[in-house]
Design brief:
The structure is a homodimer. By secondary structure, chain A is α+β, with helices and mostly antiparallel strands. The first copy, chain A, is built from 4 helices and 3 strands; from the N terminus they run H-E-H-H-E-E-H. The structure holds a DNA duplex.
DNA sequence: TAAATTTGGTTTATAAAATAAACTACTTTA
DNA sequence: TAAAGTAGTTTATTTTATAAACCAAATTTA
């Protein structure tokens, strides 16, 4: 009846990051921090978890002398996100079918 | 951009309970446990939290010699659930608008 | 040019949440 | 009357989320 919700995605911040990455396919750490209104520490931890899950790729490089972290959603990440959205439907209908 | 998700509702089990109660308006503890496939202990804790938040009313009585716990969603609970669903939309669109 | 500040993070510590295990209290059945 | 079942609650443990502290390099400013 109720489908299990992927615990990796059932987190406000991680879900927001995935939602952004689904749209843009690639984003900087600072962009994600601004858009999600999160702290760097929290974002750093959550990005690591998404990476560990295989949902995003993280590329660390330098840009204009500063370190730069780029995130991209993976195929697996897209699939997981879509499944999460589908699962969520079972909770959101006005009737409990 | 991303609306905050009510932490009381952003929990798989509590959301499932609310989803059921929105449909039926009243349900027994055991019914909720069966439908959500949860343990009694976990369900007991989560029902208490929904009650503390004012999202459900809990009526304890006896039926056929056994204790019986009945849950009903409140107006406040319905409102919170609807707001949660609305907020969630901002995370689910394919674009990050 | 040395000290303070900023950028872009990571690591560690703490608080909160979810879950499982153990327990309570009573009833039914063998 | 002993064992098993019903309907939960309480306590303990694990997992998450978050905040605070820290790090290294670059930049600004005094």
């Amino acid at each position: 009846m109720f489908k299990d919700l992927d615990p990796i995605l059932h987190s406000q911040l991680r879900l927001a990051v995935m939602s952004l990455l689904i749209g843009v396919k690639e984003a900087e750490f600072t962009f994600l921090r601004e858009q999600t209104n999160s702290t760097a520490g929290n974002l750093s931890v959550q990005i690591q978890k998404l990476k560990d899950a295989g949902y995003i790729d993280v590329i660390k490089q330098f840009k204009d002398n500063y370190p730069q972290t780029i995130c991209k959603i993976t195929k697996q990440g897209i699939k997981a996100f879509e499944e999460y959205v589908t699962s969520l439907q079972s909770y959101l209908g006005k009737n409990g079918k």
